[in-house]
Amino acid sequence: MTQSEENYLKGIYHLSHAGQQSVATNAIAEHMETKPSSVTDMLKRLAEKGLVDYQRYKGVSLTESGAQSALKVIRKHRLWEVFLVEKLDFSWDEVHEVAEQLEHIKSEQLIDRLDAHLDYPDFDPHGDPIPDKDGKFKAREKRLLSSLRPGDTGVCIGVKDSSSPFLRFLDKYGIALGSEISVTAKEEFDDSMAIRLGGQDLQISHQIASNLFVKPNR
Amino acid sequence: MTQSEENYLKGIYHLSHAGQQSVATNAIAEHMETKPSSVTDMLKRLAEKGLVDYQRYKGVSLTESGAQSALKVIRKHRLWEVFLVEKLDFSWDEVHEVAEQLEHIKSEQLIDRLDAHLDYPDFDPHGDPIPDKDGKFKAREKRLLSSLRPGDTGVCIGVKDSSSPFLRFLDKYGIALGSEISVTAKEEFDDSMAIRLGGQDLQISHQIASNLFVKPNR
DNA sequence: AAATAAATTTAGACAAAGCTAAAAATATGT
DNA sequence: ACATATTTTTAGCTTTGTCTAAATTTATTT
Ligand SMILES: [Mn+2]
Ligand SMILES: [Mn+2]
Ligand SMILES: [Mn+2]
Ligand SMILES: [Mn+2]
User: Fold this and answer.
1) Quick one: which residue's CA is nearest to C21's C1'?
2) Closest residue on chain B to A89 (Cα)
3) In chain A, which among 77-96 make CB contacts under 8 A with chain B?
4) Would an 8 Å CB–CB cutoff place A109 in contact with chain B?
5) A108 within a domain of the structure (yes/no)
6) Which domain holds residue B162?
7) What is the pTM of this model?
8) Is residue B82 part of a domain?
9) Structural element, H or E, at residue B109
10) d(Cα A156, Cα A145) in Å, to the nearest integer?
11) Quick check: B218 pLDDT over 90?
């Protein structure tokens, strides 16, 4: 399995919402920042290897084997992200690029020992679940902060957008995984909301609130 | 710089004894387990990029820039080996293959922080020196155990052969980096020697003694 | 100094992974 | 239903890195 193949499988996995739906060629091309014709070529190779079900013009979906491979890559990516943050003091907005490379290192022993070294984490620094050796992971109840209503409270458990600018914005305002958030008001007009966290009151736009996952209390 | 280019530079560096001598095409091919024609192709590409001095039929040598690049890869390889042994409890015969992959990860930040995390080690698990960011490393007085004479003593500080079978042999007989070794006798006939280490007496062949580096005591 | 052997390079293929431009299939609007 | 737009595929070309087989250069014998 080449790095490129692994990247395609991972991309298809995410675009298909964990292997549920089938995915369009153009969607893959956009996600991978490549051209649709290149995607078509790769889909043929992946189909040849039994990793995807592909009929031309009909979109593509992962086979069981393809999904398992994708999950292995995702497991590695997220474990490395934990390592970078926990052991090497990277901040959560600096880890993704490096993990994109590390996820392709081939060694069962390495990833098992890394997992143990990190004390078998369940979630990565962005709150995403880490699949175990068999590709299984814990699902958590999570809702977008934007779906809460005044009076509701919750704990921040993940981000939907994990781009550096967004993560740095959160750092700046002291919003981190584990933060207790209570919604004090919501503006009908632009869906912005007033929230209270750690003693301070903040006014956040809908764009922010709709990229933060919370575990609602109750 | 591609992975393959990095591997060639590293190979040439080692074959040229740290950039001293020039290296033959066939020697590179054998070392890299590839064909001489493939080597010729690559040498042209490396010469094009100013990483080697190459004239056809005349062998090849690293430029200053090529040597620096090789040293960066070697630095990464050896730091990762230390990490695997110190932090993930790999044994010294298990690290090489994985380090061969990890050495190609591109991130200054990663390798600097790894270096700090490991407390700036000077030597890798096989006793080889780790170049610093500028490619400089500490040279140590080291001699082959086979060059010592009865009555001489020394500390084991490295291995010449770092293959798994040899390293496991050393483990089996309790020979490790840091071991105090004294030569009690030497057989003229086959150059085997009797040594004493950690209370026990051992008889070792010339093949063993000529693959162990020691720092002689006076 | 030839003849022979060894080392090295060239020529021509191939696979992976990408691209552009053109063709074909599918979807949409009237 | 038909024209148009969108999506997807095909065809053909490029680069990297490999290979085999043949040609060439250099080294070693006789
Ligand atoms: Mn990531
Ligand atoms: Mn993540
Ligand atoms: Mn090594
Ligand atoms: Mn080593």
Assistant:
1) A37
2) B113
3) 84, 87-90, 94
4) yes
5) no
6) 143-216
7) 0.94
8) no
9) helix B108-117
10) 8
11) no
* CB of B189 closer than 8 Å to CB of B200: no
Mean pLDDT of the region A16-32: 95
CB atoms B107 and A90 under 8 Å? no
Q: Which residue has the tokens 């967004």?
A: A166
**SS3 of residue A143 by DSSP:** strand
pLDDT (mean) for A66-83: 98
Determine, yes or no, domain membership for B72.
Answer: no
Minimal Cβ distance to B110: which of A98, A109, A114: A98
Q: Is the CB of A5 under 7 A from strand C?
A: yes
Is A82 inside any structural domain?
Answer: no
Measured at the CA of B128, the angle between CA B123 and CA B131, to 5 degrees, comes to 65
Mutating which of B82, B107, B111 best tests the A interface, going by the most A Cβ atoms within 10 A? B107
**CATH number of the domain within which A26 lies:** 1.10.10.10
User: pLDDT of A49-62, one tens digit each?
Assistant: 999 999 999 999 99
| Overall number of domains in chain A | 2
Q: Give the count of beta carbons closer than 10 Å to the beta carbon of residue A162.
A: 19
- Which candidate, A149, A165, A136, places its Cα nearest to that of A214? A149
Q: Which residue is nearest to nucleotide C18 (CA to C1')?
A: A38
Strand partners, B200: B197
**Is B93's pLDDT higher than 90?**
yes
- Return the H-helix or E-strand segment holding A62: strand A60-62
Nucleotide nearest to B57 (CA to C1'): C8
Q: Find the CATH number of the domain harbouring A152.
A: 2.30.30.90
Q: What share of chain A is helix, strand, coil (3-state, %, to 5)?
A: 40, 20, 40
